[in-house]
Target: Olfactomedin-like protein 1
Amino acid sequence: MMMALRGASAFLVLFLAAFLPPPQCAQDPAMVHYIHQRFQVLEQRLEKCTEVTRAYIQEFQEFAKNISAMLGRCMTYTSEYKSAVGNLATRVERAQREIDYLEYLRESDVCVESEDKILAEKLIEEAEEKKRIQTLLNASCDNMLMGIKSLKIVKKTVDTDGSWMKDAVGSSPKVYFLIGSRNNTVWEFANMRTFVEDSTKPAPRKLILTLSWQGTGQVIYKGFLFFHNQGTPNEIIKYNLQKRAVEDRMWLPGGAGRSLVYQHSPSTYIDLAVDEHGLWAIHSGPGFHGHLVLTKIEPDSLGMEHSWDTPCRSHDAEASFLLCGVLYVVYSTSGHGRHHITCVYDPLGTVSEERLPNLFFPGRQKSHSMIHYNPRDKQLYAWNDGNQIIYKLQTKRKLHVE
Ligand SMILES: *[C@@H]1O[C@H](CO)[C@@H](O)[C@H](O)[C@H]1NC(C)=O
Ligand SMILES: *[C@@H]1O[C@H](CO)[C@@H](O)[C@H](O)[C@H]1NC(C)=O
Ligand SMILES: *[C@@H]1O[C@H](CO)[C@@H](O)[C@H](O)[C@H]1NC(C)=O
Model:
């Protein structure tokens, strides 16, 4: 829970700083209730007046660092306090996103009081937001998944966990093989043939990274390997495979990496994905319900472009992938039997579950260690029970609703 607090946002911290008597632990439920009430007021003001909010932010940000040390000392809680703080953390995250958005909207500098104006402003904001997301997800790609056509096992190993892939952009024929869920050795095969035949002519190159990965969420994008840095809850590394050095790093906010992304994938805390729109991260959100959070990442600067809370649950999930800006989550009951896609999330709202056919995977009994879409060849690369698999897909144009 402390991680949640520190990670969640400076906002809760500033908030506590503003309304609590100085350095002591808030263990009293009445105090929590009081914080809750004050927070409600703050949320209302947040909606009402961007300018006041901005002033708040600036003022309170000064407190943030000072107070976080104090919060770090509060190690014992009643369970009531824990869940109250959990709730607050969720709401604070929401507020934080709103703040980020407000800061993005540079033009809305006027503090209005009239309800009509507030409403009008809200509508404009919503329209702006919609436009921004549409621009963000405006690639020349308009497909939705209609079925998983075939399965091809290209290689068999004894390792239950791992990932394999080609670069998601460009034309490099190289195949990358990452065995295990915590390691630093990447095998680079010249092409698919040498990978399939395990050919020693030419032998695969062994690349030892300076850091180890955690889980099976790695992707290769424009020559860079992106992975969750082992031993950290939420750090994503951008690794230059040519120079064999860390190029850049980022920290996913919102309590990312605190729990497994998918219930049946026991080592992946942050999953990464690439589709026609670029780079994405998928992680489990805060709280006990474990809904997936989808975040769009700008691969050059490693900035966060946008984040969405999805309705898709982590429970009984084993993997997910993005295709044309839509998240498809693969489920299986207790990790056995048929694997099917029963949750789909489209940030633009064009594709919904009701419009999709029954999407299930052929064969295989065990849970997938990873399933990643490659927008270059438009097929899925998967790892199941030690086998490296390619699934071919059937797609069709999205139906547009106005
Ligand atoms: C940090 O806390 C100290 C007392 O613990 C106080 O004197 C100081 O003004 C605080 N700084 C800020 C920026 O709030
Ligand atoms: C999407 O891109 C096309 C051209 O590629 C452009 O004409 C259109 O205006 C863009 N739409 C948005 C919402 O940015
Ligand atoms: C890392 O992977 C290599 C092969 O890719 C293997 O030889 C080595 O034992 C692995 N290390 C660990 C700690 O699992």
User: Anything to note?
Assistant: Residues 179-180, 183, 185 surround 2-acetamido-2-deoxy-beta-D-glucopyranose (ligand 3) (CB under 6 Å). Residues 126 and 241 are 41 Å apart (CA to CA).
